[in-house]
C-alpha cells in the first residue's frame, strides 16, 4: 500500500482491479456470518 495516497484512492484502485473478487468476498463473508449465528 502506498502511504502517500488517500485510502479512498487505494480502495477504488483495488476494487477496480478485483471487482468480481470483491463480490465473491462479500458473499463469503455473508455466508460465514450466517453460519456463525
From TrEMBL:
Gene Ontology biological-process annotations: phosphoenolpyruvate-dependent sugar phosphotransferase system
Class in the EC hierarchy, top level: transferase
Keyword flag Hydrolase: no
Highest taxon in the source lineage: Bacteria
This enzyme's EC code(s): 2.7.1.69
Keywords: Transferase
UniProt entry tagged with the keyword Heme: no
An MF annotation (GO) of this entry: protein-N(PI)-phosphohistidine-sugar phosphotransferase activity
Signal peptide: none
Protein known as: PTS system, chitobiose-specific IIB component
Species, as recorded: Citrobacter freundii
Amino acid at each position: 500500500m502506498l502511504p502517500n495516497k488517500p485510502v479512498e484512492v487505494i480502495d477504488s484502485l483495488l476494487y477496480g482491479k478485483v471487482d468480481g473478487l470483491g463480490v465473491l468476498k462479500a458473499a463469503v463473508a455473508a455466508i460465514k456470518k450466517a453460519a456463525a449465528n
